[in-house]
Structures are given as structure tokens and as C-alpha cells.
Amino acid sequence: MRYPLSGLLTVAVCAVLAGASSFAAITDWLHDLDEQARDRLGFDHGVPVGTTVWRLLTRLDDGLLSTVLAGWLTARAQPVTTPRPRRYRTVIAVDGKTLRGARRSDGGQVHLLSALDTSTGIVLAQVTVSAKSNEIPAFAPLLDAVETVLGTLTGLLFIADALHTQTAHADEIAARGAHLMIPTKGNQPTLFAQIKALPWPDVPLGDRRRDTGHGRRETRTVKAITVHTPGGIRFPHAQQAIRIIRTRTTGGKTSRETTYFTVSLPAEQAQPADLQDWARREWHIENHVHHVRDVTFREDLHQARTGTGPAVLATLRNTSIGYHRTNGEANIARATRRANRRPHDLITAVTSTYTTTQ
């Protein structure tokens, strides 16, 4: 029997929006639909068994699926109506995640590199890192995928961890009209030494923030210095060097951490208060996406390993998180439970241009 491809893809998206965390759970969601819902999806002559759903989802082009679903989420996201700060800038956080339960035939684990729009909570792109490589060669394809979804990278600010403090990355981003804020650590010892040796004691304090919560007190101070001058630091397109000191007190014990960054924006476009905010956004993809995929969708326990199955499921989970974030949901687990009770609303959301279903 033949089944509609669009119907099967809609089922996969809707089921994960409703909390399904595996191929079997996606099939169960379809089988639990009432007759009217099945008819709406084109399954008026029966529904596929689990192996059919599995075969389809493990053979999809995961990159194309990520682009299509990210474009759909971006198009349906509510436009911003509140005034934005004068120096507002869209910040894209880049980070990788290993799918610990998904192993290739050679025993290696599947690793994905993703880009998150920190203002909307939408994962704009995701690429699979080659089994014999690392995240660095995957950076340019990730930018390509983001550009496909948004149409342009002009004016965007990318943030990532120190692994991506690479001159080629800085050149690539600058060539596309975007900007880069990146930490500097031991993997770039010359650059790290240059920034650390700057006259920080003579630089006035730019911004200080204090936070309390979870039995912890934290103070973060920011200093920034212009380096885009003759004899400045040797990193392409760097306009400012940044020092952020985090002092934490937990249970009577105090620790201090100093981190150095570069940013390709001048001081008039990136004040210390902005830099403070942007540095914290680097953690959004870990805390708001990867952690949720592990806790709510139990990703690391899932042992999908065939074809593109691991990446496809990760893309569907990203879509679920982004969908609920754009609906104003903070608790994704609660949002998926609510969505699971309203299958017809989910089908309407995925198959029409309606903007809300909750």
C-alpha cells in the first residue's frame, strides 16, 4: 500500500511536537489518532506500520529537513512589536552535541553542530559532523544553511566556544557581512597571551551585574578595550578585546573565573553592557535546546543509528522546542503534554498558515 509522503512527514512533526521521543512513539501517535484526524492527513485507507515510518525517517535528507522546518518556524514566529534597544543585534549561538546513544557501524558517535537564534529559540540550522573530522570544517556549511533560511547573514552576530576561535571562521563570517564574538583560550596561545597582556588595570570598569539564585551569588564584571589599531592583536577583524570576570559564592566558597573574548564590532556598536548580554547568550543553545533534548526527549538514551535517523530525530526535537518557544512556552515538557491532548490543533498548525494553536 502507498501512503502520502506529506502525511507521514506531518505525522513525524506533530508527534514530536506532542512529546514523542522515538520512531515507535511517532507511530503510536499516528495509530492513536481518531478517524477524522487520519482522514485529514490522507490515511483514509489505513495507516502504516512502524517499520514503514522508520524506513522513511532514516532515509530523509536531514539537512534539507532542517532547512525546511527552520524556515517554517521562522515564518510563523510572531513579529516583535515591543521597541528594541538602540544597539539591538540578532545573536546566533553555535554549539555541537554528541548523541551518546547513537553509534555508527564503526562504533563512533554521531555529532551534530547547530545554530540557534537566541531571540526566538529557533534552531536555524544543523549539520552532521563527519565521522573522521570535527566541528571546525562543519562551520562553513552551517553558515550556508543559516543563510539559506534567513536569506542573508548581514549584521548578525555569531557566538561560539573557543574551539571556533579560528582565523578562517573570522574571515568567512566577515565576508558574509556578519560579526563574530569568540572566547580566547589555550587552543590559541599566542592570541591568548596578547589579550591577557593588555593593560587591563588601566581600563575602566564597563559593566557589572549581580545575580542570586539556587543558593549561589554571582557577580560579573566586564572591561573592553579597542584593539583595531596599528600593533593591535593578531586576529582577523577584531575591533575590541574583552575581559569578563565571574565571581561565584556557593555554600561559603568563592571562586573566580576570567574569560577573554574578541569581537568584530567597534565600541560604538558594542558597549560593555551589550557584551555582557551577548557572552551569556552563548549558553542558550546548551541550556534551552540541548539540555531539553536530553531531559524532555531523552535523546542520549535513544539508540537510533541507522542512516540519517539520529540527525532527523534531533531536527524534529529542535523543531518541537522552537515551536513551543515561539508560542511563549518556557516549560517544554508541559507544552508537549498539552499539545498531545490537542492533535487536531497540531495538524492545523503544521498544515496551514495559522500562527498559534495553544
TrEMBL record:
InterPro entries membership? ISAs1_transpos, Transposase_11, Transposase_11-like, YbfD_N
**Has keyword Transcription regulation?**
no
The residue ranges of the H repeat-associated protein N-terminal domain are: 2-73
Keyword field contains Signal: yes
Keywords for this protein: Signal
- Transposase IS4-like domain sequence ranges: 90-308
Signal sequence interval, chain numbering: 1-24
What the entry lists under Pfam families is as follows: DDE_Tnp_1, DDE_Tnp_1_assoc
The record's listing under NCBIfam families reads:
transpos_ISAs1
Q: What protein name does the entry list?
A: ISAs1 family transposase
Species annotation: Micromonospora sicca
Highest classification ranks of the organism: Bacteria, Bacillati, Actinomycetota, Actinomycetes, Micromonosporales
